Structure formats: structure tokens, C-alpha cells
């Protein structure tokens, strides 16, 4: 009987972990949807600074909505939203930036 109980306890822990992973995935999807709708603030209305070569724009990480940052992180450092590619980068002094550039089609 104890073998069955150990098996059940192990499976319950595994299923609880899987449930937690699925909940986090759902949260990420909800965050992405929120970001693609503008995150309540509108991504185009952020204080973007253009690159000199015109290849894209950037803002400091703390100027971006948290949903945008989590979406980029969830996408392993990259997100494509409404025709733009967003990513995080670090500058001198360790300050992080959000960069965006038009998606090439």
C-alpha cells in the first residue's frame, strides 16, 4: 500500500507543477494580448528615441510598460508586436534598453 501512496503523492506533485506551468503560460499570453492592444498606454505613445541611422528606436527599460518587458522576456529576449521587433539590450553602465525596429517582411 505504501508504494501506491508514494506513487500518488509523486503524481500529485507533478500535476501541481504542470498546473502551475500552464497558469504561467496563460498569464504570459494574457500579457502579450494586453501589450499588442497597447498595454493600456499605447506603445507608439512611449518616448521613443530614434537611432541615428534610422534603423529603429529605443527607450529606457523603466519607461516601458511592465507587460512589454515580460512579453520580451517570455519570448527569450524578443517579441514581435504589430509589425515591430522588440528586444532588450544593455548599455554602458548596465542600464537596460528596449529597442524596436520595423519587422522585415
Sequence of secondary-structure elements: HEEHEEE
Largest sheet: 5 strands, antiparallel
Backbone CA Rg:
19 Å
Amount of beta strand:
15-25%
Provide the residue-averaged pLDDT: 85
- Shape annotation: elongated
Assembly annotation: single chain
Total E-strand runs: 5
Q: Runs with pLDDT <50, length 5+?
A: none
Structural class: alpha+beta
The CA-CA distance between the termini, in Å, is: 61 Å
Helical coverage, percent range: 40-55%
Strand neighbour order, sheet with most strands:
1-2-5-4-3
Q: How many H/I helices?
A: 2
How is this structure best described in words?
Helix content is 42%, strand content 23%. Strands 1-2-5-4-3 form a 5-stranded antiparallel β-sheet, with helices on one face. It has 2 helices and 5 strands; from the N terminus they run αββαβββ. The termini are far apart. Helix 1 (2-36) crosses helix 2 (66-74). The model has no long low-confidence stretch (mean pLDDT 85). It is elongated, with a radius of gyration of 19 Å. The chain has 105 residues and is an alpha+beta fold. It has helices at 2-36, 66-74, and strands at 49-50, 57-60, 78-81, 84-90, 96-102.
Comma- or semicolon-separated keywords:
single chain; 105 residues; alpha+beta; five-stranded antiparallel beta sheet; 5 strands; 23% strand
Amino acid at each position: 500500500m505504501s508504494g501506491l501512496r508514494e506513487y500518488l503523492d509523486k503524481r500529485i506533485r507533478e500535476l501541481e507543477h504542470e498546473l502551475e506551468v500552464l497558469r504561467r503560460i496563460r498569464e504570459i499570453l494574457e500579457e502579450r494580448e494586453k501589450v499588442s492592444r497597447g498595454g493600456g498606454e499605447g506603445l507608439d505613445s512611449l518616448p521613443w528615441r530614434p537611432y541615428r541611422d534610422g534603423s529603429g528606436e529605443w527607450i529606457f527599460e523603466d519607461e516601458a510598460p511592465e507587460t512589454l518587458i515580460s512579453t520580451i522576456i517570455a519570448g527569450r529576449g524578443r517579441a514581435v508586436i504589430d509589425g515591430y521587433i522588440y528586444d532588450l539590450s544593455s548599455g554602458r553602465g548596465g542600464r537596460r534598453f528596449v529597442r524596436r525596429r520595423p519587422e522585415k517582411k
